[in-house]
Amino acid sequence: MKHIINQGYIDTQLLFEPLPSPTFNHISRIDSIFVHPNIQESIIHCHTDDCSLYNTDYSMVVCAISRSDFIISKSNATQKRKHLKRKIFQFDCMTDATWTNYVLKTDELIIESDLHRSSASLNSQTNINSLNDSLEQILRTTTNSVVPYKWSSNSHIENKPKSLVITH
Fold first, then answer.
1. Which domain holds residue 60?
2. Looking at the DSSP assignment, which residues form a beta bridge with residue 58?
3. Nearest Cα to Cα of residue 62 among 9, 13, 121, 132
């Protein structure tokens, strides 16, 4: 551990908590996440999670890092050369029947995953985030299977309708 600290790596919990929570038996802190100083500004949050979804005496250290600092889009020339395409959902082509199908598919996936039974365990931010992640995955799955789409090269830019553009 001294070697990591001597190399200049930063304990992410210390960025958000002056006295980080223990990670083992609510007594000692044996887990940490260290990052290189170059990505310190990319850390969104770090905390200790009691893992209420699991029966354990350990707490998990969770660190949220901004993806935008690590993901770089390719140039239009590279995208054209490699024939990269993206899926564009056409929500404006949805009919009453496809919206009904969307609702039914979403309900089916929620029931399959027992997500509709998890409201009693929404007693912590972690549980709420977990529920949100599950719901997001269900909505992505439903959208991919029900909503009409078209493929487009990334060099083709379609402007958003003015009603969807927010100005400050």
1. 2-69
2. 24
3. 13
Give the type of residue at 44.
I
**Predicted TM-score (pTM) above 0.70:** no
Express each pLDDT in 132-149 by its tens digit: 888 888 888 999 899 998
| Domain shared by 63 and 84, yes or no | no
Rounded distance between C-alpha atoms, residue 74 and residue 84, angstroms? 10
Q: How far apart are CA 23 and CA 109, in angstroms?
A: 34
The structural domain count of the chain equals 2
Which of 8-17, 49-58, 122-131, 154-163 has the highest average model confidence (pLDDT)? 8-17
Phi and psi, residue 29, nearest 5°: -110, 105
Bridge partners of 49? 60
Domain final residue, candidates 19, 50, 69: 69
On whether both 95 and 139 belong to a single domain, the answer is: yes
Find where tokens 């007693």 sit: 123
Strands 34-35 and 10-11, how do they pair? antiparallel
Q: Choose the final residue of a domain: 20, 52, 69.
A: 69
